[in-house]
Amino acid sequence: MRISVATVCAFAAILGRDINQRTIAAPLIAGDSSGGDTTQRLPVPDVNIPAPDIAPPENIAPPSNVSLPDLIPLSDPIPLSDPIPNPSVPSAPSLELRPLVVQVEAIDIPVPYPIPAEAKESPTEESLPLLPDSLPPTSPTLTSPPAPTAVSPALDNFTPAPNLFRPTQLDEVETQEVVPITLEQALELARRNNLELQIAQLELERTQAALQEAQAANSPTVDATADLSAQRANDRDNNTSADALLGGSVEVNYDIYTSGRRSALIRAAEGRVQAQSLQVKTVAETLELDITNAYYDLQQADGQVRIAQAAAAQSELSLRNAIATEEAGIGTRFDRLQTEVDLANARQELVIALSQQQVVRRQIKRRLNIAESIGLSAADPVQMAGTWNSSLEETILLAYQNRAELEQQLVQRDISQQQRRAALAESKPQVSAFANYSVQSSLLQGNGLNDDYQVGARVRFRLIDGGASKARAAQEAANVAIAEARFADTRDQIRLEVEEAYLTLQSNFDNTQTASQAVNAAAAALDLARLRFQAGVDTQTDISRLQTELTRAEGNRLQTILGYNRALAALQRSISQMPFTEQPPT
């Protein structure tokens, strides 16, 4: 068997690299047997590293007698769960990338560990700030911001401005304070301040007044009139006389029989009141779902900001390590440039996350209709809201039984039937009774007071109306059919909503465990990659890839939990009840 020279050379190169890597990693793995600090300085391997083809810039002199500095210990990774304040959106950052030159002061990134004052340098210097000696221990899991330590604000402090108020000063529209609120407080504020719900309640009052108007037909009407008139008369002898007459009358009318028209109009008005009451309930339940989803959007925006901040801090750490290894002679310029790109991308993602956070805050503020000078943030932690104990079939039946939208279509069908009955009654006999009493007096001739009274009954029967009553009846018959069709369409839509929410709830519940495992695995893989990088086994490209995977896993876990909560809220809305437990699932 023949072995080529190229194969032998490749095998020798791989064997030599493995021996060198083990030589580098041995001090890190063995540690100090005396029980001291296990972090060791890495010796420069006895390997001839070829110089890069591209010469360094003139403003950076090559290091002389450089020993590899201490890198970041693996046991102290960048914290991912430290509480992050709610910063305002910074101005658009400008990150200038030049060969071997990084301006870290181009944007103010909240770093979850303190940097000593003596380590901060001016933006014009090329060197990076020194790292602290030690970093606080942390857990790689995602947590939500802690609840505020201060007492929860009173809801009376969120009273909105009057409806006709129009701000004219800058301080009247400026957000002066950001207040954290819970989901329960947000729902209570929506019930108090939401304008859409207020409009629905005012429309209910209007239909109640219309019902009172229809019920007034059961009572008689009393009309009083007074008149003053002048008249001129000629007798047989052509004598002309003038007189002024003052008179008045009182008339009482009552509809005895209306062929069912009066009762039909009253029942139709009662149906409108019932339909509007159901509409108020529908608006309130929809508002509760919208506010709940808006609050979850606020939690997601806050979580994305924390993830972006942690990713930016990780990229900054990778850049510092890449610079340290390059200056020690065991790193490459390619690794450094790659980390610069990762840091720039992380900063851009952070700016986008901060901007989206401000947008979401203003969206929920608009729905809650609070004062212009107050901003809102989420105080509740990000966690699963509860469990659903009913099966899919039971949930569908509960939705059919409780949903106000289905009842609204049935009520609308009854209203149309009563209006059809009233339209047909227009062409049928109408019987009414009346009584009239009148007085009249002459002001010029002094003939005294003359009075008169009249009592009777009146029957009205419209023989020809051009087919108007039948046309109105046909319109209402069509409205009956429309209400029945809408009932069927609403029923199918409700079933689809329940099925979608139920299946989404199941999938997100199953994915929460997987997402948590992915976060833990990605964090452990990143820690291992940093150790292997310090030992010279992995490259900076592997670390960048694992950083991206960790950020993606954190985002997936956040989205899965909040997706579960949104589906749970949709199921709650679908049956107009809250049949889930208060304790989150284990």
From TrEMBL:
Species name: Drouetiella hepatica Uher 2000/2452
Residue numbers spanned by region Disordered: 117-150
Keywords linked to the UniProt accession: Cell outer membrane, Coiled coil, Membrane, Transmembrane, Transmembrane beta strand, Transport
Major subcellular site: membrane
Classification via Gene3D superfamilies: Outer membrane efflux proteins (OEP)
GO molecular function: efflux transmembrane transporter activity; porin activity
Coiled-coil ranges (or none): 185-217
Entry keyword Endoplasmic reticulum: no
Residue ranges with Pro residues bias: 134-148
Protein name, UniProt field: TolC family protein
Subcellular location: Cell outer membrane
Pfam families tied to this protein: OEP (PF02321)
Gene Ontology CC terms: cell outer membrane; efflux pump complex
Keyword Magnesium: no
Family stated for the protein in its record: Belongs to the outer membrane factor (OMF) (TC 1.B.17) family.
